[in-house]
Automatic annotation (TrEMBL):
This is enoyl-CoA hydratase. Keywords: Lipid metabolism, Lyase. It is an enzyme of class 4 (lyase). The gene is echA9. PROSITE patterns: ENOYL_COA_HYDRATASE. The keyword Plastid does not apply. It catalyses: a (3S)-3-hydroxyacyl-CoA = a (2E)-enoyl-CoA + H2O; a 4-saturated-(3S)-3-hydroxyacyl-CoA = a (3E)-enoyl-CoA + H2O. GO terms for biological process: fatty acid beta-oxidation.
Amino acid sequence: MDEQRYGEWVAVRREGFVAELVLDRPKAMNAVSTGMARSIAQACAALAEDGSVRAVVLSSTHERAFCVGADLKERNSLTDAELGRQRPLARAAYTGVLELPMPTVAAVHGYALGGGFELALSCDLIVADGTAVVGLPEVSVGVIPGGGGTQLLPRRVGAARAAELIFTARRVAAAEARELGLVDRLVADGEDRTEALELAGRIAANSPVGLRAAKRALRVGYGLDLRAGLEIEDAAWRSVAFFGDRAEGVAAFNEKRTPNWPGE
């Protein structure tokens, strides 16, 4: 397995067509500092340009936490001016995950709070184990979710449920999180990363061109009226229908063999 480090606290591991974006700041339970935000953004920029990556798993090395959110110890020492200068870096980290062109899967265990849960929400799918505790508690410290939470959460669970969760700042344990749709799969304790990597592997077996076009249609079309959404879908279909992956996929189906995707 190949590994590329981005600063001290973020790594990207590669195995086949799957990349694993690893949060690796265990002493701070992966709290997102200015430096860590910069590293996440840099790692995502590199992944976005890598046409050989078909799926990405976002994971953590900490045994008891996926990510506890913003580094409030660092924030406590910042002046208003310094906090303002930090903001673009924080946005770049969350936007970097959200805008990855290939499917993404978050592997969540332990605490995924505030910005940590927003990193997971920025992924297409969330796999959680029984130890997971998720939530957006930002109003309890005088701010609001700023990594996409006010927009991504209602798209998952509806406006009223998102409002209740954000306004109360409450933490949600794994079983209820699955029931509410805050996570997509609930697995046995300690199995979140394994399940996420297996899921990413199944995704990565498919056409890389098709996967990116399908994600684009899903993301851009969601929230539009049906007619506009169908136009987005048609444009995405046309962007792949006359190129190499479609021809290879149809040929492989008829010849009863595994496709050898050209990725074109």
